[in-house]
Amino acid sequence: MIELTKKSATSPANIAFIKYWGKKNSKLNIPYNNSISMNLDSCLTTTTVHFMDNLKEDEVVIDCKKVEGEARNRVVRILDIVRTWAKIKTKAKVSSINNFPSDAGVASSASAFSALALAASSSAGLKLSKKKLSILARLGSGSASRSVISGFSEWKKGSTTNDSYAVQIEKPSYWDLRDIVTIVSSEKKEKSSTEGHGAALTSPYFKERQKELISRTNNLKKAFLRKDIDTFGKLLEEETLDLHLIAMTSKPPIFYLNSTTFAVMQVLRELRVKGIKGYYTMDAGPNVHIICRQKDVDIINKTIKRVPGVKSTIINKARVGTRFSNNHLF
Ligand code: DP6
User: Fold this and answer.
1) How far does residue 119's CA lie from ligand 1's centre (Å)?
2) Topology given in CATH for the domain delimited by 177-317
3) For the segment 211-229, what is each residue's pLDDT rounded down to a tens digit?
4) pLDDT (tens digit per residue) in 155-190
5) Residue 107 C-alpha to ligand 1 middle, in angstroms?
């Protein structure tokens, strides 16, 4: 007899150095290429799940509001997988909160689905390996597969659902990299990343990107391992521009960046002339993730906050992956 208990988990968002953009299988979130990321210690989601016999329907609450529609369906899909794996039919109550403002434009699907994967599977009595947990998180949102793993991780694309999961490259303390998340817009983006993945294949440059990625991924990983910030930063920026080139040449085109994004990129180039090394990377939105060493955080943060259009910044270091929490939300 499986014991159904209340379980909570906390999980970080992550920033991709090499990006997941384009799905080979959009139902299973199997990507075209490997991706590499760092977990963010100031951008966390905590989720509580309890499978309870008296419930008629799954109940999903996000940031204290009951959710319906597509947001709820995505959560129920993961609950259904967990029910199949645990051989139960019981419905669940799910509640989730982010410690960063949900209107900050910081993607929360990675932290949300990785926290959900651990809380839901353990509430159903399952003890999943890291690999299985990464797979379950991936089925909710592709990038969530990487948040499960501590520090810096690589999502190996695989070719079936059982071999597409993330593994650790290095633990959080390996390198003192920081991510200054620079909020330049808090509006909901026009096109979700899920829509962007679909459009990516319509870009005439998508195939070129896949070819380039083989050496870029290898070289970025090598630069990371030898802590070579110049080469690492150059490849990081190259990768970002490549993703946005694909987005802008998709049919119809998708524009994620705004004028403040470009202003911040320019200021970073100017700082580098003075020997202060910060490098930009942007996901499917206008906010700039500035990657730098700990010693340069204060000066970069101070300078960037003065750029007109910058609303706020969130400083992150690398963090452990998804963990149990005692902070039950109900
Ligand atoms: C640009 O993981 O949000 O942030 O699998 O449809 O949920 P779904 O997509 P998602 O895509 C993330 C795209 C990205 C790059 C990245 O994080 O690798």
Assistant:
1) 21
2) Alpha-Beta Plaits (3.30.70)
3) 999 999 999 999 999 999 9
4) 999 999 999 999 999 999 999 999 999 999 877 667
5) 8
Q: How far, in Å, is the centroid of ligand 1 from the Cα of 142?
A: 6
Residues 6+ apart with CB under 8 A from 252: 199
From 11, 14, 15, 20, mutation site for ligand 1 pocket: most ligand atoms within 8 A of C-beta: 20
Block residue for tokens 């991924």:
217
Atom of ligand 1 nearest to the CA of 110: 2
Cβ–Cβ under 8 Å, residues 269 and 285 = no
| pTM across the whole model | 0.97
- 10 Å CB burial of residue 255 (0-12, 13-18, 19+) is exposed
Q: Which residue has the tokens 């199997």?
A: 30
Identify the pLDDT of residue 1.
64
Domain ranges of the chain: 7-172, 177-317
Which residues line ligand 1 at a C-beta cut-off of 6 Å?
A: 16, 19-21, 29, 35, 107, 109, 141-143, 193-194, 197, 283-284
| Spatial distance between the Cα atoms of 81 and 91, rounded to a whole number of angstroms | 12
Q: What percent of the chain clears pLDDT 90, i.e. is strictly above it?
A: 93
In CATH terms, the fold of domain 7-172 is: Ribosomal Protein S5; domain 2 (3.30.230)
